[in-house]
Design goal:
The chain is of the alpha/beta class. The chain is built from 15 helices and 19 strands. It is globular, with a radius of gyration of 24 Å.
């Protein structure tokens, strides 16, 4: 729990009263976003604990009991915030709302402005985390505060979890790997305080969301699955020797042959409920040859020409297959010596359902050389796709009217990774959705001059408020 002295001192500075009948969500949203952006939560120099305490104070000032607010974690610098808004029906399991507080590094010399300051320029909010994912976290925070101000009691408990360590994979407990980032808050909560986040399902703003083109929203993505991260190190060693006496067992050549075989291998096409629905619903939106190919692929007609054309696009290829690609390479120790060692990192993104040991056996068979030693260096648990829930889809569709009328809703599978993987693996279905529209050619998460459009941010707050109201509306007998 946070310290009462800190809470009382900070709460006095917040212009938010629990007795208010309404809340200016836009104004409060800007204030919350500013607070979060200007609190450094990077692994190198920041603290998620400070950000968690600032948000906790807002909920205390709004009248949420201290017993329903927890700032917890493995150490003083890397704590997460969990807030519970009590609902009428204690028999129904809660809904978990997930966002992470940590952000990736941002070097001032790479940016045109200070990354840890909320900069308002030409209709945009700039700052590290505006897209990933403090903007989304803010929409949760202000929506719940608005519910409190309006004295709305949800039909079931809502649990807000703002966590540490999503951007780094340190696991829950020490000892941590070197340079892995910070401890993972979701992993820690699952291991040590699962009762705080136990829920029927989770809404995660770090996934899905609204794609827009030149500011016009075109599709609402509902992320219900994600691929599984996997790294393997390939190593070839031998005794080396003088470069004037080359031999057939050159370590670099052997490694190169192994990598060429991996590059040449095409993983089989596989669909799950989410990727099939994604292609089915995307087909009429795309139209033309692409739409026809998506329709044929999702129907399982086995049209080889359609699969070939889709496979030429990295996005559609990644939706249909496990992928493996070399990402790092090292070899040799001197320009005039035969290499004694050559190593490479191969990064794979496994389709849900493909087990790690099965992938290892397959890669070993593909390489076909016992001189190449494969060592798994990073692996993630299985992440079974979350079943598409009609109630969640209906609520998202209704709330999306705040962004654009009749906005198409398309389920999708994340090709990267989020903390939703940990929850799905623990048995909590997770749905990635955010109402902040981002242009497809302006994705700046993890990049320089990260930003969100202010009007889109405000619409995203209204979307989230409507979504949470719809998900927790009183149940009609």
């Amino acid at each position: 729990m946070i310290r009462p002295v800190f809470v009382l001192a900070f709460a006095a500075t917040i212009a938010l009263r629990a007795s208010a009948q309404s809340l200016d969500q836009k104004a409060v949203g800007r204030a919350v976003l500013k607070e979060l952006i200007e609190t450094n939560t990077t692994a190198s120099a920041g603290s998620t604990t400070k950000a968690a305490q600032l948000v906790a104070a807002r909920f205390l000032a709004a009248g949420v009991p201290a017993s329903d607010i927890a700032v917890v974690g493995p150490d003083e610098a890397h704590k997460s915030l969990v807030v519970r808004l009590r609902g009428n029906d204690r028999l129904r399991k809660p809904i978990l709302l997930l966002a992470h507080l940590d952000v990736v590094e941002a070097d001032r010399k790479d940016w045109t402005m200070e990354p840890f300051k909320l900069n308002e320029v030409d209709g945009f909010y700039y700052g590290r985390g505006t897209q990933d994912v403090k903007g989304g976290a803010t929409t949760f925070i202000t929506s719940l505060l608005r519910m409190r101000a309006e004295r709305f009691t949800p039909s079931r408990d809502l649990i807000l979890a703002l966590t540490a360590g999503e951007e780094g994979s340190c696991g829950a407990d020490p000892p941590y790997e070197k340079n892995c980032g910070m401890p993972n808050g979701v992993a820690w909560l699952l291991a040590h305080r699962r009762e705080l986040i136990d829920a029927e399902y989770c809404i995660n703003v770090d996934g899905g969301g609204v794609d827009s083109e030149k500011g016009k929203p075109v599709v609402m993505n509902l992320q219900a699955a994600e691929k599984v991260y996997f790294d393997a190190r390939l190593t070839v060693t031998n005794k080396g020797g003088h470069s004037s006496l080359p031999r057939p067992d050159n370590a670099i050549n052997a490694l190169a042959r192994a990598l060429a075989k991996i590059e040449a291998y095409t993983f089989p096409v596989e669909f799950n409920e989410i990727t099939r629905a994604y292609m089915q619903r995307s087909a009429p939106l795309r139209g033309g040859q692409l739409g026809a190919d998506l329709k044929a692929a999702s129907a399982g007609t086995g049209d080889p020409a359609a699969i070939t054309r889709l496979s030429a696009d990295p996005w559609f290829n990644a939706q249909m297959r496990t992928t493996c690609v070399v990402t790092m390479l090292s070899g040799g120790h001197a320009p005039n010596a035969l290499p004694q060692m050559a190593t490479a990192n191969v990064n794979c993104r496994r389709l849900p359902g493909l087990k790690s040991d099965s992938l290892v056996r397959l890669l070993t068979t593909i390489i076909g050389d016992t001189n190449v030693v494969l060592t798994v260096t990073s692996d993630s648990p299985q992440s079974p796709p979350s079943p598409l829930r009609p109630d969640v889809e209906a609520a998202v569709r209704g709330a999306a009217d705040a962004i654009a009328p009749n906005l198409p809703l398309v389920p999708n599978m994340e090709t990267g990774a989020t903390d939703g993987l940990l929850l799905r693996n623990a048995g909590t279905p997770t749905y990635g959705v955010s109402g902040i529209a981002i242009d497809t050619d302006d994705i700046r998460a993890h990049g320089r001059d990260e930003r969100v459009n202010i009007a889109a941010f405000d619409r995203g707050q209204e979307f989230m408020y409507r979504l949470l109201r719809a998900l927790t509306a009183p149940v009609t007998p």
